[in-house]
Amino acid sequence: MWLANVILFLWLLLQIWFQKSRLGTIYKMQVHIFDTTLRDGEQVPGCKLNADEKIEIALRLEALGVDIIEAGFPISSPGDFRSVKEIAANIKNATVCGLSRAVLKDIEAAAEALKHARRPRIHTGIGTSDSHIKAKFNATREEILQRAVQAVKWAKNFVDDVEFYAEDAGRTDNEYLARVVEAVIAAGATVVNIPDTTGYCLPHQYGEKIAFLMNNVPNMDKAILSCHCHNDLGMATANSIAGVIAGARQIECTINGIGERAGNTSLEEVVMVLKQHQHLGLYTNVDSRQLNPMSRLVSDTMRMAVQPNKAIVGANAFSHSSGIHQDGFLKDAQTYEIINPDEVGADSSKIVLTARSGRSALAYRFRKLGHEFDRDEVDQLYAAFSIVADKKKEVRDEDLLELALNLGIKNKAEVTQ
Ligand code: KIV
Ligand code: ZN
Predict the structure, then answer these.
(1) Which of 1, 133, 147, 390 is the most buried (most CB within 10 A)?
(2) Cα 38 to Cα 276: distance, rounded to the nearest angstrom
(3) Pocket mutation for ligand 1, best pick of 167, 168, 229, 254 (most atoms within 8 Å of C-beta)
(4) Ligand 1 nearest-atom number relative to CA 99
């Protein structure tokens, strides 16, 4: 019996080591992070960047650990062409990608802009939903399929790494989509992007679409599927995660989730979902400690504020203001925080004093100011605090010190810092 227990114990130790070691990482599957802040993200009105700003962001994205940087849409303007060209020349490790429509001269412009990239990728594609086929192209499904194949073959003349996007795949009939995916892989596509261009899908629908392709495209082992989800219904992150659970191995995303209309999948969210949910067996190469500095860089450069309640990078992502939460958090941070702010490069957690705050938070903030009070004093302070808090949105340190002075708890409340 004791021998069985020893074996069980050793086996458990081995499992823990395996999970934590590099071997555990190898055993997990990598999800490639394709950052499109500089292409889809930059399509936000008023957020246009100049070439120097783009290069600075691209270098920081590379340091962050993204696998692919979509640098722009070279045919769209001479400025974008130059930016892609300069980024291609400056980036050392990440793949640099340029967008094109399934139009030969677009593909040639992308190839030219990427000429000096160490790892170039052309991203070409066309709308595959019936709505796009009829309204945009006035074509048939067969014609679109031919154009898709022709575009991939043309791009293959310039680079080995060709990604095909089936625009509006979220609303494309799955049987037809599977035929398109099979044909572009046969033509040489290394990655096939399944965009939910309009942010229409529910997570289970998007996951089922990826699973359908994984199971019904005969040559699926020759390429990887990519998730490109928009946030029109607030489901871009959930849809991308459903996609990788179903077998996709690339997520297209932007810093702070910026992008057309309601934006794209947010990079920081998908990276942290995969990090928090290790049981999914998926990992990315992103260094999570750089997420908050990266978010600030993009927000400052684009002059686009991040909403305070934004997951991971919002100003309130690690703030606690209600009494129940503050009390729990002060006893053990894990009661109300699933991520340590250090892990994502955020400032340390904040206890914000509002009308919803409790005694433990008040005493804590006084302790931070260097003042220890006994229970009766905290009770007195709390009564006075509640009146001030009802009038103010947030009670600040100077208000607290004034409170203590007014109540005559003078000696202990003298400013010591
Ligand atoms: O949303 C979309 O479909 C796109 C493609 C151009 C990849 O951004
Ligand atoms: Zn998009």
Answers:
(1) 133
(2) 27
(3) 167
(4) 6
Q: What is the largest CA-CA distance in the chain?
A: 85
- Are 162 and 154 within 8 A, CB to CB? no
Distance CA 398, CA 64 (A): 39
Ligand 1 atom nearest the C-alpha of 36 is: 8
Which residue among 43, 164, 165 is best mutated to probe the pocket of ligand 1, counting the most ligand atoms within 8 A of its Cβ?
Answer: 165
pLDDT in tens, 217-252: 999 999 999 999 999 999 999 999 999 999 999 999
Enter the DSSP assignment of 334.
Answer: G
Look at residue 255 and give its three-state secondary structure.
helix
Ligand 1 neighbours (beta carbon < 6 A): 40, 165, 167, 193, 195, 197, 228, 230
Q: Tell me, which fold does domain 28-302 have in CATH?
A: TIM Barrel (3.20.20)
Residue whose tokens read 């400025």: 79
pTM, to two decimals: 0.90
DSSP H helices in 65-224 = 78-90, 104-113, 130-131, 141-156, 174-186, 203-216
Task: Tell me how far the alpha carbon of residue 102 lies from the centroid of ligand 1, in angstroms.
Answer: 12
Q: How far, in Å, CA of 313 to CA of 269, rounded? A: 9
Domain residues of the chain, as ranges? 28-302, 319-416
Highest mean pLDDT among 40-54, 115-129, 369-383: 115-129
Distance CA 413, CA 385 (A): 14
DSSP letter for 286, please: -
Nearest in space to 177 (alpha carbons), one of 220, 124, 239, 121: 220
Residue ranges in 28-67 assigned as alpha helix (H): 51-64
Cβ–Cβ < 8 Å for 187, 152: yes
What is the tens place of the pLDDT at every residue in 162-214? Answer: 999 999 999 999 999 999 999 999 999 999 999 999 999 999 999 999 999 99
If you write DSSP's letter for every residue of 340-394 in order, what string do you get?
A: -GGGGTPPPPEE-B-TT--HHHHHHHHHHTT----HHHHHHHHHHHHHHHHHSSS
